[in-house]
Amino acid sequence: MAPTFKVRKSEDRGYANLGWLRTHHTFSFGDYEDPAFDGFGTLRVLNEDVVEPGKGFGTHRHREYEIFSYVVSGALEHKDSKGNHEIIRRGDVQFTTAGSGLAHSEFNASTTEPVHFLQVWNLPSNTQLPPGYETGHYPDSSKKNRFATLVAPAKKRDRVDPGHPDVGKPVAIHSEFWMSAALLDPGVEVVYKTTHVGEGKKGQSHPRRLYVHVVQNNPKVKVTVTSNEAADEAPEITLSEGDGVFVEGFDGQGPGLVVRNDGQGVAEVVLMDLS
Predict the structure, then answer these.
(1) DSSP-assigned letters across all residues of 34-50
(2) What is the pLDDT of residues 121-147, one digit of tens each?
(3) Whose CA is closest to 179, among 88, 87, 267, 93?
(4) Which strand (E) or helix (H) includes residue 150?
């Protein structure tokens, strides 16, 4: 069975401009509610945030969710109730397991430049996990014209072959969730094939869900997404900056997902692979 595709256009996302914060919401969040987009599998939040210099999110509490930030540009300062204090920059993924309860704050560490990042919330497989914190660093070289794995299940991350000298082991998450990122030059095509297909009832293969997001940092980008089936069977999806596409029924034994940069300049693409 071929995978299905559903496009999420950037302009259709939730949006708020609070002066100090400009944010787009792929899913319902805060005052933005859309019953058609309340989540996707265990993925509950995907916000694309730009925070003005010296501003940010004051101390607030979270429970249960695992929350992480993918920095696109600028410097993001993190503090939490467990004593963690760090400034993360481009290439960094800052990951927090809220678990049984954690308070944290996130501020733009610069007084002159905005910080642009993706904020992701995912539901872990178990509740009441001990609060935790981890940071991974993945330079641009590790993502150039390839998908680098940034986040992987805690019990499986040590099995991930980095495939590149600049890639460290993925950040550990407590669910069947994987996140990768790629920086594609114009004309470059990469194929993503998951090896994470789970087992459903009676040992049957349980297909995966994928979400492909084009980072909003290049207005001339044009990303084409399709599966590598026969051309007359597979639709071609065209994405601009800020757009995304939901892919369901993705079987690791079947066709791969083809992602190609048909635009000008580098396309920064984030891919989430979940059950």
Answers:
(1) -GGGS-BTTEEEEEEEE
(2) 999 999 999 999 999 999 999 999 999
(3) 93
(4) strand 148-153
Q: Where does the pLDDT of residue 165 fall: very low under 50, low under 70, confident under 90, or very high at 90 and above?
A: confident
- What's the token pair of residue 230? 């026969």
| Angle of CA points 87, 142, 258, to nearest 5° | 120
Q: What is the pLDDT of residue 251?
A: 76
Nearest CA to 247 out of 199, 198, 208, 189 is that of 208
Structure tokens at 77: 């300062």
The residue among 260, 133, 244 whose CA lies nearest residue 192 is: 260
Q: Residue 205, CB half-sphere, CA atoms under 13 Å: how many?
A: 13
Q: For residues 235 and 179, is the Cβ–Cβ distance under 8 A? A: no
Our count of domains for the chain comes to: 1
What CATH number has the domain bearing residue 222?
2.60.120.10
What is the three-class DSSP state of 158?
Answer: helix
DSSP summary character for residue 144 = B
Closest Cα to residue 122, out of 247, 26, 22, 55? 26
Domain that holds residue 247: 4-274
Q: Write down the pLDDT at residue 200.
A: 47
User: Which amino acid, one-letter code, is at 88?
Assistant: I
% of residues, the chain, pLDDT over 90: 82
Question: CA 174, CA 176: separation in Å to the nearest integer?
Answer: 7
